[in-house]
Design brief:
17 helices; alpha/beta; six-stranded mixed β-sheet; Rossmann fold
Length: 510
């Protein structure tokens, strides 16, 4: 029996087909992977299933029966729930309010005490270790927000759970725990559709996998009968290398080089602006070096990144030193840091990196309006910027390949490629890089990793914040592990081991 089946489903936006004749089936009580490049149509297909986008053509079948799903309420009536890649939570409301939101239909009131009791039982049953029901969502780490989204689906008694990139912010141990729970849900008769760019996880945890490319189905495979190389080639149409294959250039006498960025004894108290404190943090970044920053979300990495990219905002709220090229940077702004050769790939491309109702050209110019390359007699030359965007579209394979499209209409991965292209455009000497490949497909990951290594090989300095341990291990020369606002451990390249690093991320000793 199939829990879900797509039959020749098409979804069109203007002249663009996001989905075209999509047909595939998901067996009941199975874990089904859905993979593809950025812009391949995965999220659109799942939004059709969840009722956000009604299909233009074709049919959706649930439990071997045709259904009409034109609104998320219809999907929930069919016991379909979805955790989006960008969480759909009201940040200023409590966890409890977020979970019971939408459950009021047909009831005079909801017994909040009874709801908490049910939620405690769900958390205990699935060993989620979560009980912050009255805490505002804005005060939670990314990992805890993800738990809230999953608990919400379980509270709604969803039988089909769509999970979009669910492990992006988790340690290896947390990933393992999540999939133990997903296996429990499967054993109880539930069906899970997993959208992921992590092919190793797809191969390890799913029963079958469907591959999409450019809005169409390439094929479906039993997971036991395929491999990483085949799936990657199906996704992008060519062979992919999963580790950096180029030269890792080593400069002579690097021990004698002075740091280009240095933090000494930095402490920042928790506040409304930074829920994560920092305690006596010291680190140094030299030329020709990538220093990776590892840690479970909520342990100080976000505060460190925000401080390093905008120290003036923290000048009265911190103690310690911050130097760029040997000079104090405590009063620098994002713009002045840019003039000093510091580039930034922000942690949240939506909140901090893009204007969704502006086109690619306007977004590319963000922070570069005073760049002499794009000025003539003090007047911004949008045409010159457009030419550069066209070049970046080609270099980074940004889709759709139209510089006039609003960025809000692009897939998350293509938005990320635009943000990275902009950060690298002024040729920065220091690159603050946060989650550069989050939500990005395997082909683009390969290109982004090559770009970061190339910057390093040219003598640049990269501080790499990432929740992807494989990414940190592949790219970094050193890894610093954060826990509870402190540097819990440091690993040299010859010491890299995912399990040991993950243990330190959880508070263990090196």
């Amino acid at each position: 029996m199939n829990a879900i089946e797509f039959k020749k489903v098409s979804k069109q936006f203007g002249a663009f087909f996001a989905n075209k004749d999509v047909s595939f089936a998901v067996a009941k009580a199975s874990i089904h992977g859905l993979i593809g490049e950025n812009g391949a149509g995965k999220s659109t297909a799942m939004k059709v299933l969840f009722g956000i986008h009604p299909p233009d053509l074709g049919e959706i079948w649930v439990n071997d029966q045709p259904v009409k799903i034109h609104h998320p309420i219809h999907a929930m009536k069919h016991k379909i729930g979805m955790v989006h890649q960008h969480f759909m939570l009201a940040e200023n409301e409590s966890v409890l309010s977020n979970i019971i939101l939408g459950q009021e239909t047909g009831r005079f009131f909801i017994d909040r005490k009874q709801a908490v009791s049910e939620l405690d039982a769900i958390s205990k049953k699935y060993e989620l270790g979560f009980n912050k029901w009255n805490v505002p969502v804005s005060a939670l780490s990314v990992g805890d927000q993800q738990k809230v989204e999953i608990i919400k689906l379980l509270y709604q008694k969803s039988e089909v759970l769509i999970l979009d990139e669910p492990t992006a912010a988790l340690t290896p141990q947390e990933v393992q725990a999540l999939f133990v729970n997903i296996q429990k849900l499967k054993q109880e008769g539930n069906t899970i559709i997993l959208i992921s760019h992590k092919l190793k996880e797809v191969l390890k945890f799913t029963d079958s996998v469907t591959v999409m490319r450019r809005g169409e189905i390439v094929g479906t495979r039993k997971t036991s009968e395929t491999n990483e190389d085949e799936l990657a080639e199906m996704m992008v149409g060519r062979k992919i290398s999963f580790t950096y294959q180029g030269e890792r250039k080593v400069l002579a006498n690097t021990s004698n080089l002075k740091p280009v960025l240095e933090v000494k004894n930095l402490s920042i108290a928790a506040s409304a602006m930074t829920h994560e404190p920092l305690v006596d943090v010291s680190l140094a970044l030299k030329p020709n070096e990538i220093v990776g920053i590892a840690g479970v979300q909520g342990n100080g990495q976000t505060t460190l990144l925000r401080f390093l990219s905008n120290p003036a905002a923290f000048s009265r709220k911190c103690s310690g030193e911050y130097q760029i090229q040997g000079k104090s940077a405590l009063r620098e702004t994002p713009l002045s840091l840019r003039h000093k050769g510091v580039g930034l790939i922000p942690e949240d491309r939506i909140a901090e990196g893009l204007l969704l109702h502006q086109d690619m050209v306007e977004n590319f110019l963000l922070g570069q309006h005073q760049d002499e390359r794009y000025l003539k007699h003090g007047v911004l030359q949008r045409g010159i910027a457009r030419e550069q965007v066209v070049k970046k579209i080609s270099d980074f394979d940004i889709r759709p390949n139209h510089p006039g499209i609003w960025t809000g209409r692009m897939s998350g991965g293509n938005q990320q490629k635009l943000v990275i292209a902009r950060a690298l455009d002024p040729n920065p000497k220091i690159l603050l890089t946060a989650h550069p490949t989050r939500g990005v497909d395997v082909g683009a990951i390969e290109k982004i990793h090559d770009s970061i290594i190339r910057e390093r090989n040219q003598g640049k300095s990269v501080l790499l914040f990432s929740a992807e341990l494989d990414e940190l291990i592949d790219l970094s020369d050193r890894i610093l592990v954060f826990f509870d606002g402190r540097i819990q451990g440091e690993f040299a390249r010859n010491e890299f081991d995912a399990w040991n690093i993950g243990r330190v991320m959880g508070g263990g000793q090196k």
